[in-house]
């Protein structure tokens, strides 16, 4: 019998932030309610780094549910091959994978590619200047800002006296 969606929450931090399990469950439940999805209880991943045992167990239940609602797409494994296997398994079973925090649904291989793009971009951001974050007090061009601005015919602002 295919009734409802199972939630999936984690004990580990998501994108560097820790979300209490009760908050994750609220997000998953609210997501399901707003979309008219029948929500069944969430499974909680073990706190061991890199653990996906509970997710694997949840995937074994696909015949008994309509799909899975992840707290966040960033709760999926970091390894692209592992994610691809999950997407293939969910889509192959004719089910839907939701990411509540991002308000996304994975229904097609094109959706899977978009999810992977988001995950890969997020993994790359720490390598960007400022770790992917804007710092308004910092000079984004570094100590050679004047030369860089002059190369484009621009003049740097005069420092406050």
Description:
The chain is α/β, with parallel strands linked by helices and 161 residues long. It has a single domain (5-132), classed as Resolvase, N-terminal catalytic domain (Rossmann fold, 3-Layer(aba) Sandwich), CATH 3.40.50. It has helices at residues 21-34, 53-60, 80-92, 109-124, 145-151, and strands at 5-9, 39-44, 67-70, 96-99, 104-106. It has a five-stranded mixed sheet, with helices on both faces. Helix 3 links the parallel strand 3 (67-70) and strand 4 (96-99). It is elongated and about 65 Å long. The mean pLDDT is 85.
Mean pLDDT: 85
Overall CATH architecture: 3-Layer(aba) Sandwich
- Beginning-to-end CA distance, first to last residue: 74 Å
Shape: elongated
Radius of gyration based on Cα positions: 21 Å
| CATH fold-level name | Rossmann fold
**CATH class value:** Alpha Beta
Domain unit count: 1
């Amino acid at each position: 019998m295919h009734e409802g969606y199972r939630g999936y929450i984690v004990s580990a931090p998501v994108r560097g932030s820790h979300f209490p399990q009760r908050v994750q469950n609220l997000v998953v439940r609210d997501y399901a309610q707003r979309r008219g999805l029948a929500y069944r209880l969430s499974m909680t991943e073990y706190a061991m780094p890199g653990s996906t045992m509970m997710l694997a167990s949840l995937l074994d239940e696909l015949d008994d549910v309509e799909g899975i609602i992840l707290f966040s797409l960033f709760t999926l494994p970091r390894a692209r091959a592992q994610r691809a296997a999950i997407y293939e398994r969910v889509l192959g079973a004719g089910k839907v994978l939701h990411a509540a925090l991002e308000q996304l649904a994975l229904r097609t291989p094109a959706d899977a590619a978009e999810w992977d793009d988001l995950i890969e971009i997020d993994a790359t951001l720490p390598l960007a200047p400022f770790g992917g974050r804007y710092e308004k007090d910092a000079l984004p061009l570094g100590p050679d800002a004047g030369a860089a601005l002059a190369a484009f015919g621009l003049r740097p602002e005069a420092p406050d006296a």
